[in-house]
From TrEMBL:
Its cofactor is pyridoxal 5'-phosphate. Gene3D superfamilies: Aspartate Aminotransferase, domain 1, Type I PLP-dependent aspartate aminotransferase-like (Major domain). This is Histidinol-phosphate aminotransferase. It comes from Marinobacter profundi. The gene is hisC. The modification N6-(pyridoxal phosphate)lysine is found at K210. GO terms for molecular function: histidinol-phosphate transaminase activity; pyridoxal phosphate binding. GO terms for biological process: L-histidine biosynthetic process. Pathway: Amino-acid biosynthesis; L-histidine biosynthesis; L-histidine from 5-phospho-alpha-D-ribose 1-diphosphate: step 7/9.
Length: 350
């Protein structure tokens, strides 16, 4: 603490990102990165952009990327917002759309950046308990609120809420924004973007970090009706008019253009997820149903922290959350077949 700090700073509880250890030959299954690299077309597009134009500012509007996203999802370009990773997009969403003086609602077990944004912007919140089976119950979101946000699939549970239940939440909250955070939707879920034209209170947020293997480029976006997008643009242009650099814009456009590579990678992750789930269940683990690129699992009678420590001693890193309700669970990223084999062997030995 310093006398130079603004008063708010001392009250902040910052987000803790997943560990990025610099250990050789590590089996790294803790941060939900895609085990398969980006499309070769992405690499070529970035190489092409490495020229004298780097002395120039990038397009502040990101028009080429907005056009690619709009074309992919069959929406209008003015229904698309782009930012420096979905975390920045989410930060703008909280600031632009959730400051109504009432608590916002989000699940009690969910993405831990949500309470961080609430602390940063002084937004009251009312976390809503998941069911005993770690599912979102739409009935619980039919209460007064200043806005609603939830990941779908949820993180860290991996559980997916069908779109008819998403619509139930939307219909029950016509005067509040409902944000569906779809970082993992491409691994077996169905995007809510197709509902945007019917619900002016719906905003869908996605990232290119997961299914499109571009965590290192930091590209995220949101899709909603034009009035919601305008609010995000106003905040963005009051903060940073150039959130995406030339390399990120070029790579992101190329990622949307190579649908074949995208589908191949997603199906590869899905296939390995089902294989790992079966292997862990055979070892006595309880594995929650997942539509993400990770699984959430526990072994009855065994502490999650002990399992995580035992794997780490074998050079295998997974994510353990020392939090109420989930302290015995491990969140395990789906890796390559070889990484997953190492994980299964490591758990067998414990």
């Amino acid at each position: 603490m310093s006398k130079f700090w603004s008063p708010l700073v001392a009250t902040l509880v910052p987000y803790t990102p997943g560990e990025q250890p610099k250990i050789p030959n590590l089996v790294k299954l803790n941060t939900n990165e895609n085990p398969y690299g980006p499309s070769p077309k992405v690499i070529e597009a970035i190489k092409t952009e490495l020229n004298d134009n780097l002395r120039l500012y990038p397009d502040p509007e990101g028009d080429a990327l907005k056009a690619a996203i709009a074309s992919y999802y069959q929406v209008d370009r003015n229904q698309v917002f782009v930012g420096n990773g979905s975390d920045e997009v989410l930060a703008h969403i909280f600031y632009a759309l959730f400051q109504h003086g009432q608590p916002i609602l989000y699940p009690d077990v969910t993405y831990s950046f949500y309470p961080v944004y609430c602390g940063l912007y002084n937004i009251p919140s009312n976390p809503v308990a998941l069911t005993d089976s770690f599912e979102i119950n739409p009935e619980d979101y039919k209460q007064p609120n200043g806005g609603i946000i939830f990941p779908n699939p949820n993180a860290p549970t991996g559980r997916y809420l069908p779109l008819d239940q998403v619509e139930e939440i939307l219909a029950a909250n016509p005067d509040r924004v409902v944000v569906v955070d779809e970082a993992y939707v491409d691994f077996g879920g169905e995007t809510a973007i197709r509902l945007v034209t019917r619900y002016p209170n719906l905003l869908v947020c996605q990232t290119l970090s997961k299914a499109r293997s571009l965590a290192g480029l930091r590209v995220g976006f949101a899709v909603g009706q034009a009035e919601l997008i305008e609010a995000l643009e106003r905040v963005k242009n009051s903060f940073n008019s150039y959130p995406l650099d030339r390399l990120a814009l070029a790579g992101a456009v190329a990622a949307f253009e190579d649908h074949e590579w995208f589908e191949k990678c997603c199906q590869g992750v899905i296939g390995e997820r089902e294989r790992v789930t079966g292997a862990l269940e055979a070892l006595g683990f309880e594995v929650l149903p997942s539509k993400a690129n990770f699984i959430f699992a526990r072994k009855p009678g065994v502490e999650g922290e002990a399992l995580a420590r035992g794997l780490r001693e074998q050079g295998i890193i997974v994510r353990h959350f020392n939090k109420p309700r989930i302290s015995d669970f491990l969140r395990i990223t789906i890796g390559t077949a070889e990484q997953n084999d190492a994980l299964i062997a490591g758990l067998k030995s414990l």
